[in-house]
Design goal:
The complex is a heterotrimer of chains A (about 260), B (about 325) and C (about 675). Chain A is α/β, with parallel strands linked by helices. In chain A, about 30% of the residues lie in helices and about 30% in strands. In chain A, helix 3 packs across helix 4. The relative contact order of chain B is 0.11. In chain B, the strands form two sheets. Chain B has a nine-stranded mixed beta sheet, with helices on both faces. A five-stranded parallel beta sheet of chain B has the order 12-11-13-14-15. With about 325 residues, chain B is an alpha/beta fold. Chain C has about 675 residues and is mostly helical. Chain C contains 26 helices and seven strands. In chain C, strand 6 (about 620-625), helix 25 (about 625-640) and strand 7 (about 645-650) form a beta-alpha-beta unit. The chains are: A alpha/beta (about 260), B alpha/beta (about 325), C mainly alpha (about 675). Chains in contact: A-B, A-C, B-C. Strand 14 of chain A pairs antiparallel with strand 7 (about 135-140) of chain B, so a sheet runs across the interface.
């Protein structure tokens, strides 16, 4: 089986809210003191791929990323987790490519890397959280798509997958080739690589392309444009519910609670 | 042509989510001077189309049986091509989310998810959504048509009823029988089997609860009313009042609910580390200086023993009035 | 009679002496072979540099092998052990004198020497040996002390020593009786036996019994000699050797560095991966069990037992473990991962060991293997490690920044201060844990009050790496250490003050390896000095009773006990109430070694045990000097206090409350 896993490197989503800043002109978050990390859902995808390989016996796992040169670190970590090959498309053009651009670039790179039975992505990225890339990539590649998967197994003549829904879960059967978006589960927490593998990963080959070398022109590929990015001024003060009597205050509390829960 | 279309995928009823979706669609249709149509795919009850027709100008019912991803997508694609809308709007259920990007691609449009507002700006549609884990908000202008969006439909006001119900059309489509992907099993999970990490509402108790009984006698009924899961801080678990599986915090579960109701919890960092991604935190605590209040959206300084029984009554009353 | 001529006939009543020499040969051969085998085994270990500073090392041997200071910490054991060991020293000298006189023509055992040493002293010390064995046997078989190791070998050794000694007295007594020795009164015990035996045995019987016992005594003694290196008696040789090659650096510097470029396997999962010193440790163990007795994990009922790790590995080594090279982790219950992950790295075990065995580094060596070679370690520790890698601190999920604590205070970043005297190293706990932020604030405010020009690194601070190192990820530790050293050197930092003993230990003992040579102070040391210099004045000392919990990484591991107590004294009108387990005997709070990231079973919590002890002092305040201790002890006290009130406060907070005018 030939498996391809897409990885996105993002700013650490867990930086404290106090330190989060946006650049209103560039319309993206400021780097500040944040570290760069691999998107957790992408890591879940990689972990799912690794476990699939362990269970089914044989598979080649290639990891692919479209991003800044620093995304190499994410790919090296994937190699340390024992992915077999890695490729990086360096984004030297648009600063915040929209999901369609990303999907098209990934599709171009994937076609160049070979033919794959299983293309896996995280369900969304921890920064922009668009959640569109997997579906768009499936369409670009002309492949079916299964979303929110947390488990994949090989079966006679195909793949069986379990995916999460808002009310529970579903089991699907499908035949490769297929694009899958992965969501997190207690079973696909990314493994910690062995230190030796981390050291070795920097000596492994890594394919690298600029957009020009890939033969992709990002001119006019965007289907949307970010007009404004701002941090909403939230009241960091706690609203102590109003009311003169206990009854009134609990009434306010009940209303506030209901406001929140009814929007779910 | 250039209408606004809302899509309901396998709806059980024309519920609050559907009503909000229709409200969102109607607002947009008014802004663009166009009609509002609804595609109802495989409704689980005939009342769905009827209720939809009260608020939209035309209802197209697609009878396709159970949801299968590829056939549903193809069908909706075909219908949308026929209708040629400006915008196709979905709710935030799983099926809608997975259809959105693929449908957009097939229609040559733009796809955006988790939209909380739509405006029109010089003939272009602009949508608003939260990004960066809820820390920021983005306004995005769509460059291609149609806009295919899934929305937080429940947060929109429902559409007003029309004086006359809209048109009703039934469609059956010619689609290939065999698809590469098949759902073979579905399961609805009961609330109580849900994992704490996935709970949307959590009622949590801390050291101030004082003992194991109030968890059962006071907090559990409250949780049931809210459809919430029960959790606890480390202090309560350490004291043996609740099992360790209840523990939320640095060395416990990390939860991401929409509402975390912290009852008699001081809110030390180790506990807060488990709920840093909760969207709304509310607290009941006797100590106005408790650190938890620094992280709350709202709260009450009072003994939980006085608040919780009264709160349960009031919540039930509010829920009843909404039905 | 003229005492100048006093002596005895050496081989009285014994013929065929040649047989003795013949029997001696195999005994010595077997004895030598035993030694040789042990030394050969040790040499299979990896290198270690333990022969520097010979003068210091000899002093250690004198204090601990000869004077047996640590052994005597248990008074009872100290008494009987000294009786037995000194007794044997005297007996050995005496036997040597006999051999010299017998085979080398000397005439040492004559006159006053014969009377006062060879007879009187030897009798007394022989008696002490018997008393010592009796006391040892009473502890072993009557009190049944739990931490001892109960083997047949141990029983046999006691029995043989006693029996051989007794035989010696019988021989002496029967000789005295049969020869009517005029100097009998100089051998009181022999004399006693002679007096008792004379009426019971005829001359012929005496001679016969004497001859029989003499050869029996010889056989037993030669047998014990041959058996010696195969039993724990070997500690007589290995203990002094182990003490000589002991670690001279403070206990906080116990962990080894790894050369990542050259090492083939990280950490230890086979005996040959240990150093020769580690292997010598295994053979030096006297099975006393004190390490396990003081181990905090073991005390609360967990599986961890340092003694069993040492003895288990020793047995493995003796059973061909170095050649067949089996995996040692999990090969015995003592080295199961469960046990290894319970260690708080407090080094109470090393402090207690009378022969200076290094138990904790072996545990960390095995952790290193599990973490770096297998990536198999507790999930909560994995989260801490991942957070360290991604964010430079171990507290995943925290919403605090590294500078939140400084809100409203006059605190400057090092970039904005020229000629800062001191770098205040805040540490992850002090910055990101809400309760500990108050300690950092108190420290900063005190420094400001004293007019100290200090700076912080703010967001440029990264974890010192201590949790990574103790959990076993030496690789990550090195990365963090190198980054920090580079950062501090870039800013030309000379003096560092920190309120975290783990950071303190890392900077003082571990960073020099990476080129970081700083003067490092624990905040209590620096603050105590400021008070001494009159720069901080106490305004209102509290009336409250305060007890102090020595942090392991400050006290036992680095020898700093007094400055925090000085602060308690200044702030509270009285000396700190000492818990029974204090200073170097302090009982760990349970937070070190990565354990503060782990949820222990509710009935086996180290912090609750220490809390119990603190609460029993009846103090109003438990003073601490470490962010981990703060967290663990607050949890522990909360769980155990019932209705009793006890505040947990850092010594800096105590001082600040006493020094600041209330607002």
């Amino acid at each position: 089986m030939n498996i391809l896993v897409c990885l996105k490197q993002i700013l650490d989503p867990e930086i404290p809210a106090r330190e989060f800043r946006v650049d209103p002109a560039k319309r993206e978050a400021e780097r500040g003191n944040a570290n760069l990390v691999t998107n957790i859902f992408c890591e879940n995808a990689l972990e799912t791929a690794l476990q699939f390989r362990e269970a089914s016996g044989e598979a080649k796992i290639t990891v692919l990323s479209f991003g800044a040169a620093s995304a190499e670190d994410s790919l090296r970590k994937a190699l340390a987790m024992k992915a077999d090959a890695a490729a990086l498309v360096i984004n030297d053009k648009s600063s915040n490519p929209d999901p369609l651009t990303v999907a098209q670039v990934l599709a171009t790179a994937i076609r160049k890397l070979g033919s794959f039975d299983l293309v896996m992505l995280g369900r969304e990225a921890g920064d922009w959280g668009a959640g569109q890339t997997a579906g768009l990539l499936a369409e670009e590649l002309g492949l079916p798509c299964v979303s929110f998967v947390d488990r994949i197994e090989q079966m006679e003549g195909g793949l069986r997958m379990k995916r999460q829904t808002d009310s529970g879960w579903e089991v699907l059967e499908t035949q490769p080739p297929v694009v899958v978006s992965i969501t997190n589960d207690e079973h696909n927490v990314p493994r910690i690589p062995k230190v030796r593998d981390v050291m070795m990963s920097y000596r492994q080959p890594l394919t690298q392309w600029t957009l020009a070398e890939l033969g992709y022109d990002t001119e006019d590929s965007q289907y949307y444009e970010v007009i404004e990015l701002s941090i909403p001024q939230t009241e960091s003060r706690c609203e102590f519910v109003s009311g003169d009597t206990l009854d009134e205050r609990v009434e306010s509390l009940a209303r506030r609670i209901t406001e929140v829960t009814s929007a779910l | 042509m250039n209408d606004v279309v809302i899509c309901l995928v396998n709806p059980a009823a024309f519920d609050r989510a559907a009503q909000g979706l229709a409200g969102c669609g109607r607002r947009l249709a008014e802004q663009t001077g166009s009609q509002l149509k609804a595609i109802v795919r495989s409704p689980q009850s005939p009342t769905v189309a009827q209720d939809a027709a009260r608020v939209v100008d035309e209802v197209v019912v697609l009878d396709q049986g159970d949801y299968q991803p590829e056939t549903a997508l193809s069908a909706l694609g075909q219908v949308c091509r026929q209708l040629s809308p400006n915008a196709v709007l979905f709710g935030n259920d799983t099926y809608s989310q997975e259809i959105t990007p693929r449908l957009a691609h097939r229609l040559g449009g733009s796809a955006v998810g988790d939209v909380v507002d739509i405006t029109v700006h010089e003939n272009a549609l602009r949508v608003t959504r939260q990004v960066y884990g809820g820390k920021a908000q983005a306004v995005i202008e769509l460059k291609r048509s149609p806009a295919v969006l899934w929305t937080r439909s429940r947060s929109f006001a429902p559409a007003k009823q029309l004086s006359e119900p809209g048109k009703h059309t039934e469609l059956s489509l010619d689609l290939p029988a065999d698809t590469p992907t098949r759902i073979i099993e579905r399961k609805r999970e009961l609330q109580t089997e849900q994992r704490l990490e996935e709970a949307r509402v959590i009622v949590s108790g801390g050291r101030g609860i004082g003992g194991p009984e109030p968890f059962n006698d006071e907090l559990k009924p409250l949780a049931e009313i809210l459809g919430a899961q029960l959790a606890a801080s480390r202090a309560a678990c350490d004291a043996g009042w609740v099992p360790p599986t209840f523990q939320v915090g640095q060395t416990g579960k990390k939860v991401t609910p929409d509402l975390y109701l912290a009852i008699a919890i001081t809110g030390a960092s180790q506990h807060m580390a488990g709920i840093s991604e909760a969207k709304n935190i509310a607290a009941i605590n006797t100590d106005p200086d408790a650190p938890i209040f620094k992280h709350c959206r709202f709260g009450i300084v009072e003994d939980y023993r006085k608040v919780v029984p009264l709160l349960r009554q009031k919540l039930i009353a509010l829920q009843n009035s909404q039905r | 009679m003229n005492p100048a001529g006093a002596t005895r006939q050496i081989y009285w009543n014994i013929s065929h002496i040649w047989a003795m020499y013949v029997l001696l040969l195999p005994a010595i051969a077997i004895f030598a072979y035993g030694f040789y085998r042990q030394i050969k085994r040790w040499r299979r270990g990896t290198p270690a540099a333990r022969f520097d500073q010979p003068l210091t090392r000899f002093k250690l041997v004198f204090t601990h092998a000869l004077a047996q200071r640590r052994t005597a910490r248990n008074t009872y054991a100290g008494v009987f052990h000294r009786f037995i060991s000194y007794g044997f020293v005297i007996l050995t000298i005496a036997t040597t004198v006999v051999a010299l006189d017998a085979d080398f023509g000397t005439a040492i055992m004559r006159g006053h020497f014969y009377l006062y040493f060879q007879s009187l002293t030897v009798d007394l010390f022989g008696a002490l040996v018997l008393v010592g064995v009796g006391l040892a046997a009473a502890r072993r078989y009557i009190s049944r002390t739990k931490t001892l190791v109960y083997t047949d070998e141990a029983t046999w050794i006691l029995v043989l020593i006693a029996f051989i000694c007794l035989q010696g007295f019988l021989l002496e007594g029967w000789r005295i009786a049969a020869t009517n020795d005029p100097w009998a009164s100089y051998s009181p015990i022999g004399n006693l036996i002679a007096r008792v035996s004379r009426p019971l045995l005829s001359d012929a019987a005496l001679q016969g019994a004497h001859r029989f016992t003499w050869w029996f005594h010889l056989l037993l003694s030669f047998g014990v000699l041959a058996w010696f290196p195969y039993t724990k008696m070997m500690h007589i040789a290995t203990a002094p050797l182990n003490i000589y090659t002991a670690q001279l650096a403070p206990l906080g510097a116990s962990l080894k560095h790894i050369d990542f470029e050259k090492t083939e396997s990280f950490g230890v999962n086979s005996l040959a991966a240990f150093t020769w010193k580690d292997l010598l440790d295994l053979d030096a163990c006297t099975e006393c069990g004190r390490c396990t007795a003081v181990c905090p994990a073991h005390t609360v009922g967990k599986e961890l037992s340092p003694r069993d790790i040492v003895l288990g590995l020793r047995d493995l080594m003796r059973n061909d473990g170095l050649t067949s090279s089996p995996a040692i982790i999990g090969s015995i219950p003592a080295t199961s991962p469960v046990a290894l992950w319970q260690c708080t790295t407090c080094v109470a075990c090393m402090e207690a060991c009378p022969v200076f065995i290094e138990q904790m580094p072996k545990i960390v060596d095995m952790r290193r293997y599990l973490v770096m070679e297998e990536a198999e370690f507790p999930e909560s520790m994995q989260q801490a490690i991942t957070s360290l890698e991604k964010r430079g601190h171990p507290f995943s999920g925290t919403n605090a920044t590294r500078v939140d604590w400084a809100d409203g205070l006059d605190v400057k970043h090092i970039n904005d201060v020229r000629d800062a005297e001191v770098l205040l190293w805040v540490g992850c706990g002090g910055a990101l844990i809400e309760r500990n932020q108050k300690v950092t604030r108190a420290t900063a405010q005190l420094l400001n009050q004293a007019g100290v020009k200090f700076a912080i690194l703010g967001r440029d601070e990264k974890c010192s790496g201590d949790p990574a190192r103790r959990i076993g990820n030496e690789f990550l530790f090195e990365m963090l250490a190198k980054d920090n050293v580079e950062n501090l050197n870039k800013h030309h930092v000379k003096k560092v003050v920190t309120s975290c003993p783990h950071c303190f230990n890392a900077f003082r003992n571990e960073y020099p390896h990476f080129g970081g040579n700083f003067e490092v102070y624990h905040h209590s040391e620096y603050l105590a000095q400021l008070v001494k210099e009159g720069k901080l004045k106490s305004i209102s000392a509290t009336n409250k009773k305060v007890t102090f919990h020595d942090p392991c990484y400050l006290g036992r591991q680095n020898g700093v006990y007094d400055s925090p107590r000085q602060l308690v004294q200044i702030a509270s009108k009285g000396a700190a109430i000492e818990m029974a387990r204090s200073r170097e005997k302090s009982f760990c709070c349970g937070g070190g070694g990565g354990m503060s990231f782990v949820d222990e079973p509710p009935d086996k919590r180290v912090n609750q045990e220490r809390a119990r002890e603190a609460l029993a002092t009846g103090a109003d305040v438990l003073a601490v000097g470490c962010p981990f201790c703060m967290t663990m002890m607050e949890d522990g006290i909360n769980a155990r206090r019932g209705d009793q009130e006890m505040r947990v406060m850092d010594v800096a907070e105590l001082l600040w409350e006493a020094s600041s005018s209330s607002d």
